Amino acid sequence: MNEEKNLRMRDARTRLGLSQTDLAERVGATRQTIGLIEAGRYNPSLKLCTAICKTLDVTLNDLFWNEDVAS
């Protein structure tokens, strides 16, 4: 993950009506960690990425795939 904000994660979270704290509690992380991921300042483990995706009912590609890196 680069320094770009992860707006897709924030959008998926807010679409479900979850706060950063709600999501953090559901995935076993801290609110600060969720905030840092959304700000693009923290690279979560695969385990945490998977938990976030399951909780938000999206795929890893939906939240974490960066088209610029693949090119």
Please outline what is shown here:
The chain is mostly helical.
Task: Write a structural description.
- The mean pLDDT is 90.
- It is globular and about 30 Å long.
- The chain starts with 6 loop residues before the first helix and ends with a helix.
- Helix content is 63%, strand content 0%.
- α2 crosses α3.
- The protein contains six helices and no strands.
- The protein is mostly helical and 71 residues long.
- What's the helix count? 6
Largest sheet: none
Enumerate the spans where pLDDT stays under 50 for 5 or more consecutive residues: none
Gap between N and C termini, in Å?
Answer: 15 Å
| Molecular shape | globular
Beta-strand percentage range: under 5%
Instruction: Briefly note the structural class of the backbone.
Output: mainly alpha
